[in-house]
Amino acid sequence: MSKAKNPTRIWLSQPHFESSDIEYISSLFERSGMATAYQNVGIFEEKLAAKLGQNVVALSSCTGAIHLAIKALEIKENDTVICSTFTFAASANPILYEKAKPVFVDSETLTWNMSPEYLEQAIESEIKNGQKPKAVIVVHAYGVPAQIDRICEICKHYQVPVIEDAAEALGASYKGKMLGTWGEIGVYSFNNNKVISTGGGGALTTSQPEIIEKIRYWASQSREMGLPYYQHEAVGYNYRMGVMAAALGIAQLEVLEKRVKQRRKIFNFYQENLDEKMLYWQPELTENSYASRWLSSALIKGEKVNNFVLYDFLTLNGIESRFLWKPLHLQPIFKQCAFYGNNIAEQLFNKGISLPSGNDLQLSDLKYVSQKISNLLL
Ligand SMILES: Cc1ncc(COP(=O)(O)O)c(C=O)c1O
């Protein structure tokens, strides 16, 4: 079960369930039965909250979590929300759901994540334009910590709340504090390719109980409680996590630390086995930074081979890889949005590649991938 389903192909990041996960789920249902299976969502929330040290609401996706975070911060039509440009579209799409305006900020070379300097420039400039940003969404790309302490300091100075998109970074930390717990609100993804998966799911965390209360209310169709009939006084959403997903999540949380260690080992293997003349790996701040290394990502050195050629070559050899995130300010859907920066994220996109990083990979897979890359690049 832990092996890739198609042994002829090495995948980027498959969901990784072990027979113990399935046994765990069966035992949960044997103990509680379907009638009380709803308790699984609460149990999952408690277990994740214990890891994070603050409250959690389990949701159907991280995208839904970002949407509700935006609502909780009372972001409305034409408000401005700053977001990392180097990320998946789901970080910024929920800004559009509420008809607010995304403003994108470039990466820094140090972590590939949001540049604190360009962030400050963006906030000041938007304030000068009479549009004080209502929130900053900062992403820890590929599970590598952004300079989240500096970013939070800047946002505190200008009194702008931080939403930490830690979709790729559950289990990662900075200065001993879990990613996702630095900002006012943090969000995680448990979709199929993440470090742990519930087969689709997300979570929101915050230290503010009133936000937790609002999120639970909206996520469950805004049903007023304490009445024998269904009463709705606000628009609601079906964003709660399902019971099967929660059961799987309980089992997967038990192996979170192990999974992160495995991903970090995969990253270290590539770093040690692929000559530094070929690839430049996503750097990590040395000061107490602990990345989840969701996807091992690197930039191709030199001009001999570009990422299109490497991508096609790996595909031909049965290896799935992926381009780095195309910056959101370059995506057609966001082309009207303001952007602060230079072209750092664009250069990452132009030169980068993510390599197979799943927990099901064997040493022989890693050796095969490294050998193939060396053959092409050296
Ligand atoms: C940075 C980032 N944010 C948000 C999401 C959305 O997560 P979900 O698929 O759980 O909605 C993802 C998912 O891949 C992501 O990588």
Comma- or semicolon-separated keywords:
378 residues, alpha/beta, Aspartate Aminotransferase, domain 2, Aspartate Aminotransferase, domain 1, 8-stranded mixed beta sheet, 3-stranded antiparallel beta sheet, globular, binds pyridoxal-5'-phosphate, pyridoxal phosphate binding, dTDP-4-amino-4,6-dideoxygalactose transaminase, transaminase activity, PyrdxlP-dep_Trfase_major
Characterize this entry briefly.
The chain has 378 residues and is of the alpha/beta class.
Spatially, the strands of the biggest sheet line up as 1-9-8-5-4-2-3-13
Question: What is the 3D form?
Answer: globular
Q: Report the CATH superfamily of the largest domain.
A: Type I PLP-dependent aspartate aminotransferase-like (Major domain)
Distance between the termini: 36 Å
With helices defined by DSSP (H or I, 4 residues minimum), what is the helix count? 12
- Rounded mean pLDDT is 94
Radius of gyration: 21 Å
Can you name the CATH architecture of the largest domain?
3-Layer(aba) Sandwich
CATH class of the largest domain: Alpha Beta
Low-confidence stretches: 1-6
Largest sheet: 8 strands, mixed
Keywords: Pyridoxal phosphate
Organism: Flexibacter flexilis DSM 6793
GO molecular function: pyridoxal phosphate binding; transaminase activity
Pfam family, one: DegT_DnrJ_EryC1
